[in-house]
Amino acid sequence: MALSVTLAAALFPQVASAQTTTLLASHKSPFNCGKTFSANNWTPSHNPSGSIDWQNHGSDAINGETVRATAAGTAYFSDEGNTSYGKWVEVRHSDGTRTRYAHLATMVRSAGSSLSVGQGTAIGTVGSTGGSSAPHLHYEQRTSSGAMDTSPTIEGTTVSLGQKKAVTSSNSCGGGGGGSNPYTPEEACGSGYAVVDSAALTGGRTYLLYNSGNGYNCVTTMKTTSLGSPSPVSAFLEPQGASRTTDSGSYGYYAGPVKRSAPGQCVRWGGSVGSSAYTSPFEHCG
Length: 286
Hints:
Layout: H1 5-11, H2 13-24, E1 36-40, E2 52-55, E3 66-68, E4 73-79, E5 87-92, E6 98-107, E7 114-117, E8 122-126, E9 137-142, E10 153-154, E11 157-158, E12 164-168, H3 185-189, E13 194-201, E14 204-211, E15 216-223, E16 231-239, E17 245-251, E18 254-261, E19 267-273, E20 276-279
Antiparallel strand pairs: 1-2, 1-12, 2-9, 3-8, 4-5, 4-7, 5-6, 6-8, 6-9, 10-11, 13-14, 14-15, 15-18, 16-17, 16-19, 19-20
């Protein structure tokens, strides 16, 4: 029988500590591949001490950027309205450690929901909800005991108290949070689209994106197996009360993009890779 993280930590503290340190040191940046933002571990009055504020770097604006899980685990979604973290996500990792992502503009699941995520899975977008005065991403790494890691390591770079460092992301460079697909959902749908939801498939993942500038939704299904070799894959999008649009065929990397205008409408969306398929209920009705 495998020991729980808590019991293992009590009986074998050196081993548990080493496992925790290994996972915490393996975290990638919470942004798309190639994006560079400033990780600010400012002091003395940041609450909680040791948390990171991800902010603009140079001319690169962070507002609206896709936020991705820095390591695999189970994501839990919360919304504190105009107080504290605002919209925020906690990802609980296999060794008991946790990461938190706060002040989000959007989340891929509603508050109270949970989602199994891989490293690189989209969980929301950067905003300024809750107790925030300007768009940024509040980020925490916590140990298995719940204590703050006050010198978190991201992309192999340790950002200690009082430090501010520019960090370039290698997250999702394989495409869509899994496998080695060279494309991302955002690349498939185009400029202005951000992931608002996704669902796992055997051999891939299907994504729903939204462009707040023009009111269009976009669905694409990304493969993580048989990459570069044509195999059956599909993506569909159906605004409530309207017909369904589907793209299906034998593709090397992804199906779609399928785009439909649906401002203020609920949509049904999904896709398939081989025989593995997902169909959502009518949802995302904004």
